[in-house]
């Protein structure tokens, strides 16, 4: 495919230098445009996050103008899932909007082994949502980003037992994964991620005593938070307060890490989950519209929303 504008794919060593452009152009009037580009409240945190990305798990393209970067797009990707989570596109000015479609086309062309592309512009960003709609992406619903404040707590380890919840052990891995795979067949966490998390200091894997529920969380010191990736309770065990117990234990772990807050993301059509999180003290801080494009989806396992 021929592009009318010169597009550059950036080397990993160049990624931290993108922080200034992202920090300036992804925040308009205090509003976040692309949720996947929202990495920290300061320029330094943006640079640290970009520096920590692995070369085989991210990619960025840009168009240079006379004053530096004119437009930028990027993604995090998982070759095993053949899936990319898009970042942007962002432009330096309104008159640079014509650069965004060529950038998206270049990204999709160069990542031709992938089959699924997901984007999460802020729900209220009309231009960015219109961009993905016009580019052939289909709406998949709205995801709400929730946060809960964590009160300070002495730096003591989480007890081995926390009511009906405890830290997972290697013996719990097989039944834990069975529940996770049944509830989230398209999870971005692999089985090996859970296995490594069992012994990682900056990860927390919790299970209920009957192994009907689990939670996976990670410590994020750059954001001063713990992020809860997944909370799952088997259908047969719902309505017993297990989800609330898992969240309570996870928040306690966050306090032992000295973090300021806990965060998670949930689809807005999951009313029961939203009620659970609100009961645990979570409140919405933003919302993103989920857009998806699938290329040759029959050649790879389906990735439901």
From TrEMBL:
Residues 163-305 form the N-acetyltransferase domain. PANTHER family: AMINOALKYLPHOSPHONATE N-ACETYLTRANSFERASE-RELATED-RELATED. The keyword Transferase applies. CDD domains: NAT_SF (cd04301). Gene3D superfamilies: 3.40.630.30. Keywords: Acyltransferase, Transferase. Pfam families: Acetyltransf_1 (PF00583). This is GNAT family N-acetyltransferase. InterPro entries: Acyl_CoA_acyltransferase (IPR016181), Bact_Acetyltransf (IPR050832), GNAT_dom (IPR000182). SUPFAM superfamilies: Acyl-CoA N-acyltransferases (Nat).
